[in-house]
TrEMBL record:
Root EC class: transferase
Nucleoside diphosphate kinase-like domain location: 9-166
Classification via Gene3D superfamilies: Nucleoside diphosphate kinase-like domain
Protein name: nucleoside-diphosphate kinase
Keyword Kinase belongs to the record: yes
Transmembrane helix is among the record's keywords: no
Family from the record: Belongs to the NDK family.
MF term (GO), any: nucleoside diphosphate kinase activity
Originating species: Papaver nudicaule (Iceland poppy)
Cofactor names: Mg(2+)
Enzyme nomenclature, EC number: 2.7.4.6
Catalytic activity: a ribonucleoside 5'-diphosphate + ATP = a ribonucleoside 5'-triphosphate + ADP; a 2'-deoxyribonucleoside 5'-diphosphate + ATP = a 2'-deoxyribonucleoside 5'-triphosphate + ADP
Record keywords, A-Z: Kinase, Transferase
C-alpha cells in the first residue's frame, strides 16, 4: 500500500516577477520554501518576450486584453475591485500592460516539490509581506499555480526544452543571438543601428563587450547547502554583495561535471558524482570584496549588520575576468548569450539556454 505522505508529494510552479531583481529577494524566497520543508527541483532566471508573456497569461486563464492600457482611473478601479480570496493573491499589475511588465526584466521560474506543495506555496504567497508582497503590501511578487493540474500546465510551458536551432529558426529575423565564441545570428546591423540612436547608450565593439565580463564572477552553491537547507541564505548573501545577477540556474552534479563541485575533503572528481545532488549556478557582477569564501565548512551569514564567513564546502567562486566565460559554460550551455529586437533600443543578455524558452512561441 502506498504511504499517505508519499501520495501527497506534489510539484507546483512558482514565478518570481521582474520586481524580484530590483528588490533582491530571490534568496529570501528560496529560504521561505526551505523553512517550510519544500524542495526546489528546477530553477531558472530568464528574459521572456511579450509573445511568450501573453502565452503565460492565456495558460493561467487570465484575459490577455485585461489591463491592456494604463490610466490612473483604471489602476484605482483594478485595486478597488480586486478580491484577494477569489484570485489567490495573483493581482495583475495594472500600472502598465501586463505582458510588458513580464517582459521588462528577468523573471525566475521554479518547480517546488514536497508534501502538499500546492497548498503550502499558496498559503505562503498569500502572506502580505516580503518577499511575497511589495508596495505597502498591495502587489504580489510571485505567481503560484492554484492546483496540481495547473502546475503541470505551467511547468510544461516554462520548462519545455528549446534548442538554439529552434530559437534561431523561430526568431532569426526578429532577434539577434550572440554566442560566446563570437557567432552571431539574426539582424545584427538593424539592432546596432537602433542602439546607436540611444544617446544614453555607448555601444561597444564587439557585441559581447557590452556585458562587462571583466566584472563578472560565476558562483556554485554546493550540495552541502541543500543538505543544510541554507541555499536561500547563501543566495541572499550573493545578492546583497553584488550589483546584480546575470544568470541563475539549478544544476545537477551528474550533468555538469566540474572541479567547482569539489569540497576540501574531495581528493578527486572521479567517483564523487552523485546524480541526485543539486547545486545553484549564479552569474553576478561587481562583487564586493567583503564577500570572502574561507576554507572548510563555516557558513554564518546574518546580512544587514554583515558577518558572512561562507565556507568553501558551501560555495565556489570563479575569479572575475576573461576566464569567467569558461567557468560559465560549465553550467550554462550557451554561455553569455545576447539577444535584442531591432525595434527596441535595449540590449538584453542571459547566460543560459533556458532563456530561449521565453523567446520561442508555442507552435
Amino acid at each position: 500500500m502506498i504511504d499517505q505522505k508519499q501520495q501527497l508529494q506534489q510539484k507546483t510552479f512558482v514565478l518570481g516577477y521582474p520586481g524580484f531583481f530590483s528588490h533582491r529577494c530571490i534568496g529570501d524566497l528560496v529560504s521561505q520554501f526551505e523553512k517550510s520543508g519544500l524542495n526546489i527541483t528546477e530553477m531558472i532566471c530568464m528574459e521572456v518576450s511579450e509573445v511568450f508573456a501573453g502565452e503565460h497569461i492565456v495558460n493561467i486563464g487570465w484575459d490577455p486584453e485585461a489591463y491592456a492600457e494604463w490610466s490612473p482611473e483604471a489602476e484605482r478601479t483594478a485595486e478597488d475591485e480586486w478580491n484577494p480570496e477569489a484570485s489567490n493573491g495573483n493581482l495583475p499589475v495594472a500600472s502598465r500592460k501586463w505582458v510588458d511588465y513580464l517582459a521588462s526584466d528577468p523573471v525566475v521560474a521554479m518547480v517546488v516539490e514536497g508534501c502538499d506543495s500546492v497548498d503550502k506555496v499558496l498559503e505562503l504567497t498569500s502572506k502580505k509581506q516580503l518577499p511575497f508582497w511589495v508596495g505597502n503590501n498591495k502587489r504580489p511578487t510571485v505567481y503560484a499555480s492554484k492546483s496540481g493540474e495547473q502546475a503541470e500546465r505551467d511547468i510544461s510551458l516554462w520548462f519545455r526544452p528549446v534548442s538554439l536551432r529552434e530559437a534561431v529558426d523561430a526568431q532569426g529575423k526578429k532577434v539577434v543571438f550572440m554566442l560566446p565564441e563570437g557567432l552571431v545570428y539574426g539582424p545584427q546591423k538593424e539592432v546596432e543601428d537602433v542602439l546607436q540612436q540611444d544617446e544614453s547608450y555607448a555601444l561597444q565593439e564587439p557585441l559581447k563587450d557590452n556585458f562587462f565580463m571583466e566584472y563578472m564572477s560565476v558562483f556554485l552553491i554546493k550540495p552541502l547547502a541543500f543538505r543544510k537547507r541554507c541555499v536561500g541564505e547563501i543566495l541572499d548573501a550573493i545578492e546583497f554583495n553584488c550589483f546584480g545577477l546575470r544568470g541563475l540556474k539549478l544544476v545537477k552534479k551528474a550533468e555538469h561535471p566540474s572541479k567547482a563541485w569539489l569540497t576540501d575533503s574531495d581528493s578527486d572528481l572521479e567517483g564523487e558524482i552523485d546524480g541526485d545532488e543539486y547545486g545553484v549556478a549564479v552569474v553576478a557582477y561587481n562583487i564586493k570584496p567583503c564577500l570572502k569564501i574561507l576554507p572548510g565548512d563555516i557558513k554564518k551569514i546574518h546580512l544587514k549588520n554583515e558577518v558572512f564567513e561562507i565556507g568553501s564546502n558551501y560555495l565556489h567562486k570563479s575569479d572575475p575576468g576573461e576566464d569567467v566565460l569558461e567557468a560559465a559554460v560549465e553550467f550554462f550551455e550557451y554561455g553569455f548569450t545576447a539577444w535584442a529586437y531591432p525595434n527596441h533600443a535595449l540590449l538584453f543578455g542571459c547566460m543560459f539556454q533556458a532563456s530561449f524558452v521565453g523567446l520561442v512561441s508555442l507552435p
